[in-house]
Amino acid sequence: MVFGLLLGGKEFNERFKEKLPAPIPLEFFAVVMGTGISAGFNLHESYSVDVVGTLPLGLLPPANPDTSLFHLVYVDAIAIAIVGFSVTISMAKTLANKHGYQVDGNQELIALGICNSIGSLFQTFSISCSLSRSLVQEGTGGKTQLAGCLASLMILLVILATGFLFESLPQAVLSAIVIVNLKGMFMQFSDLPFFWRTSKIELTIWLTTFVSSLFLGLDYGLITAVIIALLTVIYRTQSPSYKVLGQLPDTDVYIDIDAYEEVKEIPGIKIFQINAPIYYANSDLYSSALKRKTGVNPALIMGARRKAMRKYAKEVGNANMANATVVKVDAEVDGENATKPEEEDDEVKFPPIVIKTTFPEELQRFLPQGENVHTVILDFTQVNFVDSVGVKTLAGIVKEYGDVGIYVYLAGCSPQVVNDLTRNNFFENPALKELLFHSIHDAVLGSQVREAMAEQEATAPPPQEDMEPNATPTTPEA
């Protein structure tokens, strides 16, 4: 009956809170009426109703803690401290989010430490947050420190003088008050469908914490929940999101090419993004994802070039030998480093000199969409740190792509990432500092300027050497 009245009264207060000058103190009326009815009808002796019973009055005198017991209780003390702080900060953040204020975890930790240090001199229990009392105070409208002070004074008054008045209070009334005020906590079960739709990982953490705390207790349940949460963090950093970025036309904005049809890749440039730190657990995955997502694999390119050059040398060599010029010369060739020609009955065949400047089409199938990729830009705007293993991986990527003539630029590195790279000797070669750019757009422009200058140098006519006035060109003798 008390449960129903309190629940209905809560709904009444919530519905008419704008018209009521103050919330109706339902819990106070429940305690007064429950105590009066229990005492008037002598429910404990007549019907064996559980009541609060005798409450000891007064405070114990201060005394020094018994240090001889420390080695017996330090393990439990650590568990109690962790659980106590976790419960306190979780309840504080829950109420802070509900009422719109901030909570400082360090401040709460210091406050708990001071309270427990002083309270231990008076032989108190471990001090922490009470879920039920906090929700009861919040449910009755208490929102400031003044409400906490008044509640503390009331408890002190009960301990010192008026405790006997509550000896007849039925336990059922207290239980009903606690359960009704825990309604907000039970309503968190409604979050399960939301977690199921949005994040299976968060659902796993929620269920694991609930089940382990229910069956193992708060101490082991909390440890289990922390371990599961750490494992999920490792899993998430090992499986980050990899994206290939493209340019939004006529802007300096670069976004995922799979997100918008208008976004196009820049010819010859691949932009690769990761949304996680690069460290020992995911560095190899990062390197593999870079090659897979961009479609540019230096090992395949190098192998294709070697295969193509061997095939080309064989085909060109056979054709040149068939069309070689036949001359009459002595078999002896002057010069220590001269290559010996092939001799057939005093006839020597010299293949013509052929310079190959491009690779056959067989090589092009190893490049994405037939493009000649000359630059790979690594977007580090979402990378917050790089450890020593990650730095070695980046150095290997720069060298591996550089061996096949592809530049690797780092764009958007934070000061922390630059410090990590410097501390791990990534810039041991000062020239590598030229690979850093403030933004993706700067890296793109730098790459395009570099390629334009290289193309201009390649197409420029070679400089002609000045000849002496009386000099005449020499011709080889037959």
TrEMBL record:
GO biological process: transmembrane transport
Gene name in the database record: Slc26a5
Membrane topology: Multi-pass membrane protein
Region of interest: Disordered: 451-478
Ranges that cross the membrane: 69-89, 109-133, 145-166, 173-190, 210-235
Keyword Endoplasmic reticulum among UniProt keywords: no
Domain STAS: 259-447
Domain of life: Eukaryota
InterPro entries to which the protein is assigned, alphabetical: SLC26A/SulP_dom, SLC26A/SulP_fam, STAS_dom, STAS_dom_sf
Subcellular location per the Swiss-Prot or TrEMBL entry: Membrane
N-terminal signal peptide: none
GO cellular-component term (any): membrane
Keyword Membrane: yes
Keyword annotations of the record: Membrane, Transmembrane, Transmembrane helix
SUPFAM superfamilies: SpoIIaa-like
Pfam families the record matches: STAS, Sulfate_transp
Official protein name in the record: Prestin isoform X4
